[in-house]
Design brief:
Layout: E1 5-9, E2 30-31, E3 34-35, H1 36-46, E4 51-56, H2 61-66, H3 71-79, H4 83-91, E5 97-102, H5 109-114, H6 117-120, E6 125-128, E7 132-134, H7 138-150, E8 153-159, E9 169-173, E10 182-190, E11 201-209, H8 213-219, H9 230-240, E12 243-247, E13 252-254, H10 258-271, H11 276-286
Parallel strand pairs: 1-4, 1-6, 4-5, 8-12
Antiparallel strand pairs: 2-3, 6-11, 7-13, 8-11, 9-10, 10-12
Bound molecules: 1-O-phosphono-alpha-D-glucopyranose.
The site of 1-O-phosphono-alpha-D-glucopyranose (G1P) has 14 residues, from β11 and α9.
């Protein structure tokens, strides 16, 4: 069955971005001029998704506001000849159906995904963690095809230095990585100590899952850091049937903390057709890294 639905967990408090996130959800912080959430949705659309379920919190009304029609702003833009931006605003939430589900208590990623059960329905679906930005849709697209072919769950992974594995979910591969970067998975473990980690291949926030995961989530007890972990539900799935990982080849930006967000913005801005060149000139002429500069 084709993967047409995606779930984006976006109910977190964004404590690492306080005080900004007191009023602005971290998923709406701009990457240049576009909310991170929009870039995640664009990635999903590029992989064939046409229904996005956003699991949010009623304490973050700005997320829903972002998808409301904005006829007055659009009319003003058209009056002043800014049709390109007017077209962009008009398309928000149009090329894809957006549904909302609510997570009222921060009980963990597994719990957040479980809150989307009714909105997702009985179909395979992608999960995209909005803290991780990908350079393009190719990884998710490949993962969807692997799920369609194998009938089992698929996770996106990437090797990292061993001393970083304890911050992530880690897979235990049960075979070789094939020419397309696909590898069978025996099991996976959330935030293992380095000396107990089964590999240095970490989960990078992209999943394509079969709907039986919702029953698994319902059975999961609080695990690492006292939360209901998605990784623990996937462990049960991998024990019961085929489960694969795809090793990512795309650029990945961790925008979940201020430094990661800032470096993502700088890297992407340097590649931007409009502001890349002037930004490069400014960075060069200001000579910010020269001795004597602050820091
Ligand atoms: C979550 C997942 C973890 C994954 C990580 C990727 O962890 O639980 O398996 O490796 O996202 O960003 P969190 O960042 O919520 O601690």
């Amino acid at each position: 069955m084709q993967v047409r639905t995606a779930l984006i967990p976006a109910a977190g408090f964004g404590t690492r971005f306080l005080p900004a996130t007191k009023a602005v959800p971290k998923e709406l912080l701009p990457i240049i001029d576009t909310p991170a959430l929009q870039l995640i949705i664009d990635e999903a659309i590029g992989a064939g998704i046409d229904h996005v379920v956003i699991v949010t919190s009623r304490a973050k009304p700005a997320i829903e506001a972002y998808f409301q029609p904005a006829p007055d702003v659009i009319a003003k833009l058209r009056d002043s000849g800014r049709d390109e931006m007017a077209d962009r605003l008009e398309r928000i939430g149009v090329d894809v159906r957006i549904s909302f589900a609510y997570q009222e208590q921060a009980l963990g990623l597994g719990h957040a995904v479980g809150c989307g059960r009714e909105a997702v329905g009985d179909v395979p679906f992608a999960v995209l963690l909005p803290d991780e930005l990908m350079g393009d849709s190719s990884l998710l697209d490949q993962m969807a095809r692997v799920c369609e072919r194998t009938g089992g769950g698929v996770v996106g992974v990437k090797p990292v230095p061993w001393d970083e594995v304890d911050r992530y979910g880690v897979i235990d591969p049960s075979g070789e990585i094939d020419a397309d970067g696909v590898v069978p998975v025996r099991t996976m473990v959330e935030k293992p100590p380095v000396d107990a980690a089964p590999s240095n291949m970490i989960l990078i926030g992209r999943y394509v899952l079969t709907p039986d995961v919702f029953d698994r989530i319902a059975e999961v007890r609080p695990g690492a850091v006292g939360e209901i972990q998605l990784t623990d539900a996937l462990q049960a799935q991998a024990a019961a049937g085929p489960f694969h990982a795809v090793v990512s080849k795309v650029d990945r930006y961790d925008t979940g903390n201020p430094l990661g967000w800032l470096t993502a913005v700088i890297e992407l801005a340097l590649k931007d057709a409009r502001i890349g060149a002037p930004l490069r000139t400014w960075l060069t002429t200001r000579d910010l890294l020269a001795s004597g500069s602050p820091g």
